[in-house]
């Protein structure tokens, strides 16, 4: 008998046994290419699944390197939940920040931290093995490339720290998949995904998520502004614009652009304060409201939706887009920017990350550009177009016209 899967099920006491489930016969492919692909995959999988073949490959130098690459890739994912905690702890302990100032000894880094010297050395060694830092000479540490990127980007640091919430929600991913109504921490964090009583979201909750969005906006805005030239327009309305950080980046690059922002009233208040602090209140107008129901101001040439549609299920996206279509003047340009599913490695990684993220958040979907273009056309927008960015991990753009 053939078996396709093994799952460890805990029985009474501490013993565990292997439960084996029988393979179901593969469905028959409809095309010749499909049936050849099935034959090839079946043959290849049988080779890879054979312990004898794997042992043989390990004895042949060229094949050994290939097999070890595959094994390491699988181990990187298997142990990823531990590796990510090494990164998280380094950020929490401000290790990368401290090393930004220059080389430091283990004792320097242990000094003033909760960790004694020995435990700090243990942490530093793991960070070195994961290539976040390098040991220049025994006990003297500097940043490696990944550590330097994290140290220089408050957005990445903020994301790593907020993963504490997501991490706990992922304790039972099968439960999340089976029962999407399960209460999670991310559902409380992103309070607007509950839809009802949007006017009851308190300032502290809105400030919490808006601050995360603010910190992570720099890397995103760079990538969006390099892909789309907002300088073609005299005015821009950023819908769901948070505390105005995206507009502030646009303002810096395009000094003549008139700025407009629309967000929930509680967030609009944060945006007014932030834009004023940045000396931008003279060239900006902030509107509070619900983008699914309230009329959207129609005086701008361009409207952006940055990390908005992905937060919502299809029906709600249809509501947002049809409200926009109803409100905007013909000819208004629409720019959608968010992580989209696609074939590149970055887009695939982002799609896995966000698909699980939205599951825990209880709303939203990581869509492909084609799916977004379809929703836009359905809502009556014309000429939908995809624009690639330099970093599909962060965003792809879809533009269209009212
Ligand atoms: C040639 C020689 C000798 C040396 C060259 C050395 C050199 C200069 C190297 C530099 C190489 C280089 C260019 C590296 C670049 C690295 C980059 C760009 C790294 C970027 C990393 C980005 C990361 C890790 C981003 C993480 C983002 C996350 C986790 C985002 C999460 C977003 C969330 C949760 C959003 C929520 C909003 C919602 C709810 C979905 O709407
Ligand atoms: C994921 S954040 C993105 C913020 C910003 N665009 C960015 O990329 O940093 C989603 C934004 O949509 C806003 N939002 C959610 N539901 C809304 C609604 N019904 N009407 C108006 N704004 C809403 C939230 O307050 C939040 O600022």
UniProtKB/TrEMBL annotation:
The protein's name: Hydroxyneurosporene-O-methyltransferase
Q: Where is this region: Disordered?
A: 1-21
The organism's taxonomy opens as: Bacteria, Pseudomonadati, Pseudomonadota, Alphaproteobacteria, Hyphomicrobiales
Offer one Pfam family short name for this entry: Methyltransf_2
Q: Where is the O-methyltransferase C-terminal domain?
A: 201-382
S-adenosyl-L-methionine as a keyword?
yes
Basic and acidic residues bias (residue ranges): 8-17
Task: Name the InterPro entries for this protein.
Answer: COMT-like (IPR016461), COMT_C (IPR001077), SAM-dependent_MTases_sf (IPR029063), WH-like_DNA-bd_sf (IPR036388), WH_DNA-bd_sf (IPR036390)
Entry keyword set: Methyltransferase, S-adenosyl-L-methionine, Transferase
The source organism is Roseibium denhamense
